[in-house]
Amino acid sequence: MPTTATEIPTDAEAADRSGITIRNPRSGEVLWTVAEAQPDAVTRAVEVARSAAADWASTAPAERGAALRNAARALDVAAGELAGLNASETGRPVEESLAGIAAGVSTLEQYAELGPVHRGLSLRGNQLASDYTVAEPRGVAALLTPWNDPVAVACGLIGAALVTGNTVVHKPSERCPRLGEALGEVLSAAFPAGVFQTVTGGAGVGALLAQSGADVIAHVGSSAAGANIARAGAMTGAHVIRENGGNDPLLVDRDVDPVWAAEQAAMGAFSNSGQICVAVERIYVHEAIAAEFCAALEAEAALRNGDGTVAPLVDERMRDAVHAHVTDALEKGAHALEGGLLPDGPGAFYPATVLTGCTDSMEVMTEETFGPVAPVQVVKTFDDGLRLACSGKYGLAATVLSGNIAHIQQAVAALPVGTVKINEVFGGAPGGAAQPRGISGAGFGYGPELLDEFSRVKVVHIAAPPEAAPQKDRP
């Protein structure tokens, strides 16, 4: 995910601390300016979290779960206000913003249930001894979260960190700071003082928080920022959890319905204007169905452009980055079946775009574009497509559309990613978790396994003492 709240410079002092000015991505008008946390405020937040850590760690897990349920209820009550802020700051439609907040509520409720039953393991040893493991909180958790689904993503990390007994300092993206502040106000009321705090700011604040000595750092954002955070964690000894950028491939086999495949591709590439971590970023389609597939995908994009359902990108900086990738592809020989031009008028809108004739020399095929762009490369065989899908430095997710079980099994075994999706670009069972690979991150970012990421394990061995030696009679 490019250019998120956690783009951390090498020198934190270089950050501009004059405040964050937010423009409405639909109209371009200035909405407000939000002050950035000063260095001493970041330091103080971590100190307060540290002072509250022992009491919160000793709080009964069931009581922590109850607090999380209270936070979920408060979030549900505030959903309308938060959805309005989300729409204003990021351009995401209110209906989609509400869906993201509902997902956040569900996630908090899920961790409220999972936390109290998060358990250790019994170990096999001497029959007359006891051996087991105990999960303990790591301490202070620094959470740096993105703007593209700001409530749902934040609630996952916040919920898992708090219910396992950690205290939290949360930095939301500087692209939705007012929403981040409001979310913090809603959630913090459910917890004792100092257990959950919010600091706002951009790259410099993120750098300070990553270097603050927190015991665990969780980050969802770009790979460049994630690499800096990993380096900071290596220096401080913090445990680091990262879900970073992706360049997720979609592989379309010759035996599938090309119109249905195009619908899946459009959903994966154009939903939330392509601003989804696991969006379809590059498409490899078998030549046997390529013509029908591309025609149907062009129609899907034209439909979205015609009815105005493509929301704006988060800001003009993001739009410029997306258009630079498209321009690079066109200059290197790609053809735009639909879109590809900067629209007139205010705001950060960008059309749903379909590019054909793409090759691996183009940035749209090798980097994360993070916009409503569907670049297509035609391949002669499934093996050719799989080889290309396996290439690159990212390892977040991949999708395969095929009715050939041998090809499906081959793809599952070969794809070097954390998540493989077969015949559905989005979906999956609740509680699913994966470990990103390559520069896409490390550690479990969701599901029950996230509780393990926020915990450290202590092994306990208890043996009976030897029988006491008989005492000699004393005079």
Describe the overall structure.
Helices cover 40% and strands 19% of the residues. It has 2 domains: 12-245 and 439-460, Aldehyde Dehydrogenase, Chain A, domain 1, CATH 3.40.605.10; 249-422, Aldehyde Dehydrogenase, Chain A, domain 2 (3-Layer(aba) Sandwich), CATH 3.40.309.10. The strands form 5 sheets. It has a 7-stranded mixed beta sheet, sandwiched between helices. It has a 6-stranded mixed beta sheet with strand order 6-5-4-7-8-18, with helices on both faces. It is built from 15 helices and 19 strands. It is globular and about 95 Å long. It has helices at 39-58, 61-77, 79-90, 94-114, 150-163, 177-188, 203-210, 223-236, 258-270, 290-307, 316-331, 363-366, 382-389, 405-414, 449-453, and strands at 20-23, 30-34, 129-137, 140-144, 167-171, 196-198, 216-220, 239-243, 249-252, 282-286, 335-338, 353-356, 373-379, 394-395, 397-401, 419-422, 437-438, 441-442, 455-463. With 475 residues, it is an alpha/beta fold. α12 (363-366) links the parallel β12 (353-356) and β13 (373-379). Residues 3-16 have low confidence and may be disordered.
